[in-house]
Automatic annotation (TrEMBL):
Alphabetical list of InterPro entries matching this protein: VIT, VWF_A, vWFA_dom_sf
Top-level lineage group: Bacteria
Native source species: Coleofasciculus chthonoplastes PCC 7420
Domain VWFA: from-to ranges: 288-459
The protein's name: Vault protein inter-alpha-trypsin
Domain VIT intervals: 12-140
Length: 615
């Protein structure tokens, strides 16, 4: 078993002390984020400022997060007044261009994707004392949940547990062969990097917005008519937690939004739809729930306390005829009971005592936990729901997703809860999607009552199931993602992205079954006569890539890799098989001269325990 790191990192003098002596000065000085939100879409520009504090040329390598659904479509580097645009290439080709430029003494930037939410920025041949800006741009959809729009910007890659046998000195293992690329060094306990972050979000919803707030950060809010401008407030500029920004729009205009875009690649559309259906608390069927808690070292302290609080509310919120059990995992899997328990006062008391005595330490052997939870014997005639509570801090995500995809029984569901400041949203979102459930993220310091209430509204009864999509119109049938529409829960939108190559208009009909057992039908007219927002095409490309990658969680196929790569190149998108590369025309560093190469350390995620991680 391989922990993230057995001891905190040492930097061998490759840093400078700040004037106040409280922070370490590394090559990454500042990150500036500018986001513009219009309706359901955000366009985000991230600028990273690097400076070489050494007396030799520098190569800086920085591992950082972006949203797991982001369509990253642009990168450039700025040297003085010069801007060098990045170009999208197949990943291997981009790496070769970068390495050749580095050897020739040219300044070069390389942007790669390691996971859907983890990226690597490499910047070669920064001259001593020189500043270089790298700008990355992406488009994303906003989350909509229980009446709130939500914009999230992650700021740090949390520490990952790496299972398997080490295969070289880098820390790569047979189970996570790219472990070294997703585990950046972490600044020592008691210190911090001098790197800080600024964020500006401009919201133009087309109607007045209200109740702008953040559970994660202090905010400065300015309102100009229907446009709201939000910035980080006070000293809340340490990049060690996700920025979560929430707001509501005035009036009830969230039922349906249809956006289209047309170009030579076809007609594209995005559909955001919340069916006007009532949740039916009087039609609740007995269910069986297996709660699976992560009690590994990274959960130590505030994250575990929040999960325990959630679990106590979960147990108290079960319906009288429900059955349940609890498992927890770290190095091994432990059970409250080998078989489901009836929801009696005695069993609830037994469960609460079990929850209260949990402690966090050791490895995150999630695969064993998932297998055990899926295989708990299920009572006859009950819907099995597995509820995972974890920060998701692992490196073998695809092994987990493959297990759920292959072994979760038909009709059963897997839900995920992430508790903490910077959880692995990629894993937690995907595991719920593949498990036909929903994902909820809650900070360690957020109230739990409303979250648990809304969760039980969902888990008790979906409002629309067996959803089918039918095209009524001329020409070919649109290519729509997700290819299989998920069940809808209370106040959860159906989000679809489609492309129609021939750009011919028609009607998209949505059919389903309501909680009452009645047939549901809704029709949307799609017209591609106008150019529209180019972001829609990018989001369709990103949705197609995601669908194709989900099909390869067990193993890659040649046709799958080619389809992902072709889509990414056609839509100028970053993926695991493409990369952006930018190279200066001139030779800026003497070829072959001595230089420094450095992996830039990152902050420890807020409220994550050093003792729990460096075990």
């Amino acid at each position: 078993m391989t922990p993230v790191q057995s001891t905190p990192p040492k930097y061998n003098g490759l840093y400078c002390q700040s004037p106040d002596g409280n922070s370490l000065v590394f090559p990454l000085k500042h990150t500036e984020v500018e986001a513009k939100i219009a309706g359901n879409l955000s366009r985000v520009e991230v600028t990273q400022r690097f400076e070489n504090p050494f007396t030799q040329p520098l190569e800086a390598v920085y591992v950082f997060p972006l949203p797991d659904e982001a369509a990253v479509d642009d990168m450039e580097i700025k040297i003085g007044d010069r801007i060098i645009k990045g170009t999208i290439k197949k990943r291997e080709e981009a790496q070769q261009i970068y390495e050749q430029a580095k050897q020739e003494g040219r300044t070069a930037g390389l942007l790669e994707q390691e996971r859907d939410n983890i990226f690597t920025q490499s910047l070669a041949n920064i001259k001593p004392g020189e500043e270089i800006d790298v700008t990355i741009r992406y488009t994303d959809s906003l989350n909509f949940e229980q009446g709130d729009y939500e914009f999230v910007f992650p700021m740090v890659v949390g520490p990952r547990y790496i299972p398997g046998t080490t295969i070289d000195e880098s820390g790569d293992t047979d189970e996570v062969p790219d472990a070294s690329r997703i585990t950046p060094p972490i600044v020592p306990e008691g210190t911090r990097s001098a790197h800080d972050i600024g964020v500006t979000v401009e919201i133009d919803a087309g109607v007045p917005i209200q109740n702008v707030h953040s559970p994660s950060h202090q905010l400065q809010i300015e309102t100009h008519g229907e446009i709201v401008r939000v910035q980080l407030g006070g000293d809340d500029t340490i990049p060690n937690k996700d920025l979560i920004l929430r707001y509501q729009v005035a009036g009830d205009n969230t039922q349906a939004t249809v956006l289209t875009q047309s170009d030579q690649r076809g007609g594209h559309f995005a559909l955001y739809f919340i069916p006007a259906l009532d949740y039916r608390p009087d039609q609740i069927f007995p269910k069986d729930v297996v709660f699976l808690m992560d009690t590994s070292g990274s959960q130590q302290g505030a994250p575990l306390h929040k999960c325990q609080e959630l679990m106590r509310r979960f147990i108290q919120g079960l319906n009288p005829d429900d059955t349940f059990t609890i498992l927890d995992f770290s190095n091994a899997v432990r059970h409250l009971s080998q078989t489901p328990l009836a929801n009696t006062p005695e069993n609830r008391e037994l469960a609460i005592n079990y929850i209260n005595q949990l402690h966090a330490s050791g490895a995150t052997e999630m695969l064993s936990g998932i297998r055990a939870a899926i295989n708990v014997p299920a009572p006859e005639g009950r819907l099995r729901s597995v509820v995972l509570l974890s920060d998701g801090y692992i490196g073998n995500e695809n092994r987990i997703l493959a297990e759920v995809q292959q072994e979760l029984k038909p009709g059963n569901r897997l839900y995920s809860f992430g508790a903490g400041s910077s959880v692995n949203r990629f894993l937690l979102n995907r595991i719920a999607e593949i498990g036909r459930g929903i994902c909820r993220i809650i900070r360690h310091d957020e109230p739990t009552e409303k979250v648990v209430e809304n969760f039980f509204r969902s888990i008790n009864n979906p409002v629309l199931t067996t959803i089918e999509l039918n095209w009524n119109g001329s020409g070919e049938t649109p290519e729509i993602y997700p290819a299989i529409a998920p069940d809808l829960f209370a106040q959860q939108p159906l989000v679809l992205f489609g492309r129609k190559r021939d750009r011919m208009a028609g009607d998209l009909q949505i059919n389903g079954t309501t909680a009452k057992g009645e047939r549901y039908e809704k029709t949307f007219t799609l017209n591609f006569s106008e150019t529209g927002n180019p972001a829609i095409a990018q989001l369709w490309g990103r949705a197609r890539i995601k669908d194709l990658m989900n099909q390869m969680v067990t193993y890659e196929t040649k046709s799958g890799v080619e389809a992902v790569t072709d889509t990414a190149l056609t839509y100028q998108l970053l993926c695991q098989y493409t990369a952006f590369v930018a190279v200066s025309d001139d030779v800026r560093v003497e070829p072959g001269s001595q230089s420094v190469s450095m992996n830039i350390p990152v902050e420890m995620a807020e409220e994550v325990s050093y003792q729990g991680v460096f075990w």
